[in-house]
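User: Predict the complex.
Assistant: Input components as received:
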Amino acid sequence: MQILDGKTLAAKIRQKAKDDVASLKKQGVTPGLAVVLIGDDPASHTYVNMKEKACEETGIYSIAHKMPSDISQDKIIETIEMMNKNQNIDGILIQLPLPPHIDTQKVLQTVSPQKDVDGFHPFNVGNLVLGLDCFAPCTPIGVMRLLEEYDIDPKGLDTCIVGASNIVGKPMMNLLLNKFATVDICHIHTKDLKSHTKRADLLIVGVGKINLITEDMVKEGAIVIDIGINKTQEGKLTGDVDFENVAPKCSYITPVPGGVGPMTIAMLLANTITAARKR
Ligand code: NAD
């Protein structure tokens, strides 16, 4: 069993991002990222702080628009439109989830597709489905980059994705399909989850449920990617996979923390630099 070490790879990508930013600055371009954060969800604040810190370390200019949870949708849209026009901003990120009175899709669709470094705009979603050049969501591209680093080619692999959200499972499905994996995607209404997971050469889980995947649900020698982030009662970070018992059966597995999580931020920096290059 080998650990897929996202922490080390993310550090390597962040160093390269730093070098790329330095050379862009020599050409007079400072990549810029705007983050829109609504309300006071502690997890969202933590993620935004991590993203701001990563930008600062890399030399990317970042600005956070922090707004109260009762802000109007019109005001959010106005802020995004302002960022769309701002020549110093290459990427715009809307930290999800948004408060219930806000139409999330309407807000995401206001972001200019050229600045949509999270890949949530239907223009980029469509291009991803078609296998065209686009911004794709950072967590799934982080998983693809991690597989590539360990020379794991998804082509022909029986792959099972558990979790079918717009930001994790669905883009993961398209990225894998574009690399010719055979993809099976499961969700809350899937009958007999185990019958799907057990067949997988590559099992990718992004649900948000501690120990959802137990040892009996995993094929011997499988590659297991755990995207889930959960907090135990003791406040420890853990994934969706019962790591201790599943790991001995795997050929490769990601730990939580230190697996997919650090890759997500690294890919956000990479996407912002790509947007800046296209400025
Ligand atoms: P979500 O709530 O939007 O989607 C969860 C998905 O899991 C849904 O498709 C749902 O149908 C499915 N699901 C729920 N219970 C299930 C069950 N018992 N069996 C099978 N499927 C089930 O969540 P999300 O935003 O996609 O996030 C999923 C997890 O990934 C969370 O733990 C989140 O914190 C984590 N996450 C991690 C990163 C990272 O950088 N590592 C990034 C984004 C999300």
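The longest strand covers residues 32-38.
Let me know if you want any component modeled separately.
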